[in-house]
Design a protein that fits this description.
- The structure is a single chain.
- The chain is mainly alpha-helical and 646 residues long.
- Helices cover 74% and strands 0% of the residues.
- It is built from 41 helices and no strands.
- The longest helix is centred in the last third of the chain and has 27 residues, at 515-541.
- The radius of gyration is 55 Å and the shape is elongated.
């Protein structure tokens, strides 16, 4: 019935049958195989227990459980099939299969073949010496043949156990087991050779063993040396402390960990010698507070400077303040400022900068005014920002001053700082960003100081800023300045007329509380506009009716307060040019003399063309004054005043 269950794969019925048969071993095996996910594997185990080996083999192959098939072949002594299965389908268990086969071969006395499979399973370094330990000649041949360091070491240990020290040393050397070499040489009393090996190889374990040997024989200097080579610094430090090797102790402590540094520092402090070393070790070990206290107590000022470099805002504020006082005393103000800032004593730091004329860098200014600082209220922070900005202004660092004034919310002072910097691009940008009337006016006033006559963009910006700043009176003044420039530099009365017309419009729009002054200014502008219109009209009329144009110009010269609206020189120049063209050189010369009498300090060549002057010289037979002084408009001071209206 149980065999039928293998065919029908009824494991439930098989369990009942096995129970009735009293086959406890088969029932146990069947219960253990229940963990396998494949039903065929479970049925195969039942088949094995019932001696149906062929069926079991087919079932394992059917469910592709080659690992179980491999175990089945090994258990049934079918080693060839087991090896083939492992090599083809179960490579994860290949080395295990080789090892098991080697064990089997060893058990039947086939050591030669067993050796091969031990090598294939990569267990030959342990298993082969064990297998051949009773056949020393074969084992020695195998050792020399393999040239394996692990096997050399095993063989050397064996030889050492047999008291064959020379041979053991030779194989230890082949195995590059420097610890064992040094150990054996020490045992044999070859200390010099052991030292050479440890020094040449730098092997830490060998150096440590040799150091222990020297320590045992009270050769402290060599013991410290080899403990150092072994990087066993704590042992080297212990020996230095016990034997008063203070010079070596410092170097060893610096190579070791913080705990050893601390112990060495305590040692120096207790001995009250080499206190500078104690300070340095406390500092290096991370005990900054202790290092500072000891440095202050022993007046180690050079050490203080090194320690202070590692102090930051996370250090003890009391220590920071103490260090800053020390640096102030020794006139190292920049370092003192850094420590005061780290201690969050910003006002003291700023005061020190002011008193000692220290340059406030952007980095220092930022550290003194951290946005999210909990040590300063917003009001105190703004006050500090303004003080920093004031200091930057005194130092000439106008851009940084602008930045700090802006952060403090004082845009007016920020603009003043920016104006001092002379950075036109930033001034225009700042005014446009802030969009405050006062700033527009300040920027426009500054731009007037530039050569706006040759830069149309600046000219437009000035007009735009005065317009945005709602300062029509100042804009009017600027238009007047433009008009005067057109007259003085270019004799372009048409453009001057346009500018004065715009100035008149601006003054008309201005809300002047003193209406009387506004009326006077409007009347003056109107008078100047009227005079210029007459002169422009006369020059335009000259093409059609020269006589009428000359009469208008003559009448214009009779007008009171003609200059500066129309320069006297330009009017006389017009008449001189006319008379020269008409061939009336006597009249032209008379007008020229009148001009020279009215403007004795100015060069008439500025008003009269060279061609007309040459004609006069030729016709009248007189030598004209060739002075090269150019006329300077008397209105220049007024223009300058307009340009600097605040």
């Amino acid at each position: 019935m149980a065999r039928m269950c293998v065919k029908t794969r009824r494991l439930d019925v098989a369990r009942v049958c096995l129970g009735n048969m009293g086959n406890a071993r088969a029932a146990k095996a069947l219960r253990e195989v229940e963990t396998e996910p494949e039903p065929e594997a479970q049925v195969a185990m039942l088949a094995i227990q019932l001696g149906m080996l062929e069926d079991a083999e087919k079932l394992f192959k059917c469910c592709q459980r080659y690992d179980l098939l491999n175990n089945f072949y090994q258990a049934s002594g079918q080693w060839k099939l087991a090896l083939e299965t492992a090599e083809s389908h179960d490579r994860i268990h290949l080395r295990t299969t080789y090892y098991n086969h080697a064990k089997y071969l060893e058990s039947i006395g086939n050591k030669t073949l067993a050796l091969t499979y031990y090598e294939k399973s990569d267990t030959h370094r342990v298993e082969v010496p064990r297998m051949l330990q009773d056949d020393t000649s074969s084992l020695e041949i195998y050792v020399n043949k393999m040239k394996d360091k692990n096997i050399y070491k095993w063989w050397a240990q064996y030889l050492e156990s047999q008291s064959d020290m020379d041979s053991a040393l030779r194989f230890y050397e082949s195995a590059q087991d420097y610890l064992s070499l040094v150990r054996v040489h020490c045992y044999m009393g070859n200390i010099q050779k052991a030292s050479e090996i440890a020094n040449d190889t730098g092997d830490r374990a060998a150096s440590y063993h040799l150091a222990r040997h020297y320590e045992g024989h009270e050769d402290i200097k060599q013991a410290v040396h080899f403990y150092t080579r072994a990087q066993a610094y704590n042992n080297a430090i212990r020996l230095c402390k016990e034997n008063g090797l203070d010079d070596q102790l410092m170097n060893l402590a610096l190579l070791s960990n913080a705990e050893d540094m601390m112990e060495a520092a305590c040692y120096y402090e207790e001995k009250e010698t080499h206190m500078d070393r104690a300070v340095a070790l406390y500092h290096k070990a991370g005990y900054v507070s202790k290092a500072l206290e000891l440095a202050f107590a022993t007046q180690q000022f050079s050490a203080l400077q090194l320690i202070a470099e590692d102090l930051n805002e996370y250090s003890d504020p009391a220590l920071l303040a103490r260090c800053s006082d020390f640096f102030i005393t020794h006139s190292q103000y920049e370092k003192a400022v850094e420590l005061l800032v780290a201690a969050k004593k910003y006002h003291q730091a700023l005061e020190l900068c002011v008193n000692q004329s220290l340059t406030i860098t952007e980095e220092l200014a930022e550290r003194m005014t951290v946005t999210d600082s909990k040590d300063l209220s917003e009001e105190a922070r703004k006050e500090l920002l303004e003080r920093i900005a004031d200091c930057c202004m005194r130092q000439g660092n106008y851009h940084l001053a602008t930045k700090k004034y802006t952060q403090a919310g004082n845009k007016l002072k920020a603009m003043r700082a920016l104006l001092k910097s002379g950075d036109t691009e930033k001034i225009i940008f700042f005014a446009n960003v802030c969009r405050q009337k006062e700033l527009f006016i300040m920027a426009a006033n500054y731009l007037q100081s530039l050569d706006w006559r040759k830069n149309p963009e600046i000219l437009k910006t000035i007009i735009g800023f005065y317009t945005k700043g709602r300062a029509p009176d100042l804009l009017a003044g600027f238009y007047e300045a433009c008009a005067q420039v057109e007259i003085d530099d270019y004799q372009n009365y048409e453009k001057a007329l346009d500018a004065l017309t715009e100035a008149f419009k601006c003054v008309s729009k201005a809300k002047d509380p003193s209406a009387g002054q506004q009326e006077v200014r409007l009347a003056d502008l109107q008078h100047r506009i009227t005079l210029i219109k007459k002169f422009v009209h006369a020059r335009m009329l000259y093409v059609e009716d020269p006589g009428e144009a000359v009469q208008l110009c003559e009448a214009l010269l009779e007008e009171p307060e003609l200059d500066p609206a129309v320069r006297i020189g330009d009017a006389y120049g017009f008449l001189v040019e006319h008379h020269c063209q008409q061939g009336n050189f006597q009249m032209a010369y008379r007008k020229l003399e009148e001009l020279q009498r009215l403007l004795p300090s100015q060069n008439v060549r500025y008003y009269v063309s060279p061609a007309s002057l040459e004609s006069l010289q030729k016709e009248m037979g007189v030598l004209m004054d060739r002075g090269d002084n150019r006329p300077i408009a008397k209105e220049d001071d007024e223009v300058e005043e307009d340009l600097n209206v605040s």
